[in-house]
């Protein structure tokens, strides 16, 4: 983070905000600021952020939204370099969204607070190792041979089966289950015989896992979640999967067993993998996309089976033409 480091939660002047986010203050603003707010509800002591350039989908904001930002009641705008000149106090930064996130972290913290220590209603196996700075909320269950690192936050109702290792600074939200038995069975001619799933789960540093998600234990070796990964709510990670650094799985993503996601992969909502495949570094799978075979690095794919997103769009257009009775 650029600039000075004020006391957490303190009100900031426009000058202090510019220094804090590494931006350039244009114009002047009196008073101090205590929160980032939405355009239509901001007040004089709040900040509004806005990006005037292309978003992640390659679209520019609608003119009426720009007009609303210019007319809003916020005392300070945090904007990008392309934002038009105006008679308003503003801080220009490279990434307004990132600047806003850092400001909100300063004013409101990153999380719903949980007291450090183990809540009286939590159940922690005697063989588990729990760092002194970890926070374990009401109703959490920690199984045998688990390791919980420094600064870990386990929200109410989280369940850790045996042999789950959580690196420092991880957050696991309510009712998520880590280390449940992987979906491994062998047919004996009469019925499915379960293969004991003994590998556990190993989660790196600074991982955040949303509510009601499940990560299955590996069969022999751990299911692995790399440093800095973010998993949304209702995500399923099957046994023996391996996620690299900074992987993002949006809501309702499902990974079949033995999927490998390399660093920086992003999977949109309700997308999934067929298992026993690899997705390359930095590849993005659009919402409801389905990976059925290996996908190389640096691609943007969509559809089932997932293909280059431009090809997918052409395929959809061709289908629409056929449905309307046209050939071209």
Topology:
Blueprint: H1 14-21, E1 24-26, E2 35-36, E3 46-50, H2 63-71, E4 76-79, E5 90-92, H3 96-108, E6 117-118, E7 123-124, E8 129-130, E9 135-136, E10 141-142, E11 147-148, E12 153-154, E13 159-160, E14 164-166, E15 171-172, E16 177-180, E17 185-187, E18 192-194, E19 201-203, E20 208-209, E21 214-216, E22 223-225, E23 230-231, E24 236-237, E25 242-243, E26 248-249, E27 254-255, E28 260-261, E29 266-267, E30 272-273, E31 278-279, E32 284-285, E33 290-291, E34 300-302, E35 307-308, H4 309-323
Parallel strand pairs: 2-3, 3-4, 4-5, 6-9, 7-10, 8-11, 9-12, 10-13, 11-14, 12-15, 13-16, 14-19, 15-20, 16-21, 19-22, 20-23, 21-24, 22-25, 23-26, 24-27, 25-28, 26-29, 27-30, 28-31, 29-32, 30-33, 32-34
Antiparallel strand pairs: 1-5, 17-18, 34-35
Task: Tell me about this structure.
This protein is α/β, with parallel strands linked by helices and 328 residues long. The protein folds into two domains: 14-108, Udp-n-acetylmuramoylalanyl-d-glutamate--2,6- Diaminopimelate Ligase, Chain: A, domain 1; 134-311, Hexapeptide repeat proteins (UDP N-Acetylglucosamine Acyltransferase, domain 1), CATH 2.160.10. 14% of the residues lie in helices and 26% in strands. It has an eleven-stranded mixed beta sheet with strand order 6-9-12-15-20-23-26-29-32-34-35. It has a nine-stranded parallel beta sheet with strand order 7-10-13-16-21-24-27-30-33, with no helix packed on it. It has an eight-stranded parallel beta sheet with strand order 8-11-14-19-22-25-28-31, with no helix packed on it. The relative contact order is 0.06.
């Amino acid at each position: 983070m650029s600039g000075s480091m004020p006391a957490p939660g303190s009100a900031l002047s426009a000058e202090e905000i510019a220094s804090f986010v590494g931006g350039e203050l244009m114009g002047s603003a009196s008073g101090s600021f205590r929160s980032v707010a939405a355009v239509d509800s901001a007040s004089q002591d709040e900040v509004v952020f806005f990006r005037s350039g292309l978003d992640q989908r390659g679209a520019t904001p609608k003119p009426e939204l720009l007009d609303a930002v210019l007319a809003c009641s916020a005392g300070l705008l945090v904007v990008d370099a392309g934002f038009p000149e105006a008679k308003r106090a503003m801080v220009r930064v490279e990434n307004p969204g990132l600047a806003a996130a850092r400001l909100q972290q300063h004013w409101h913290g990153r999380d719903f607070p949980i007291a450090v220590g183990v809540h009286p209603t939590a159940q922690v196996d005697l063989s588990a190792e729990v760092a002194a700075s970890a926070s374990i909320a009401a109703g959490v269950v920690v199984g045998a041979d688990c390791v919980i690192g420094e600064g870990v936050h386990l929200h109410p109702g989280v369940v850790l089966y045996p042999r789950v290792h959580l690196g420092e600074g991880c957050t696991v939200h309510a009712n998520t289950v880590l280390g449940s038995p992987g979906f491994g069975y062998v047919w004996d001619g009469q019925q499915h015989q379960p293969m004991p799933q003994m590998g556990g789960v190993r989660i790196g540093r600074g991982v955040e896992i949303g509510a009601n998600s499940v990560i299955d234990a590996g069969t022999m070796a751990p299911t692995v979640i790399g440093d800095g990964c973010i998993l949304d709510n209702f995500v399923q990670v099957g046994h023996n999967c391996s996620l690299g650094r900074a992987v993002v799985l949006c809501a309702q993503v499902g990974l079949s067993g033995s999927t490998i996601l390399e660093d920086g992969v992003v999977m949109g909502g309700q997308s999934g993998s067929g298992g026993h495949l690899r997705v390359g570094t930095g590849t993005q799978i659009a919402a409801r996309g389905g990976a059925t075979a290996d996908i190389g690095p640096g691609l943007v794919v969509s559809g089932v089976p997932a293909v280059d997103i431009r090809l997918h769009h052409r395929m959809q257009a061709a289908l629409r033409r056929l449905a309307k009775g046209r050939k071209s």
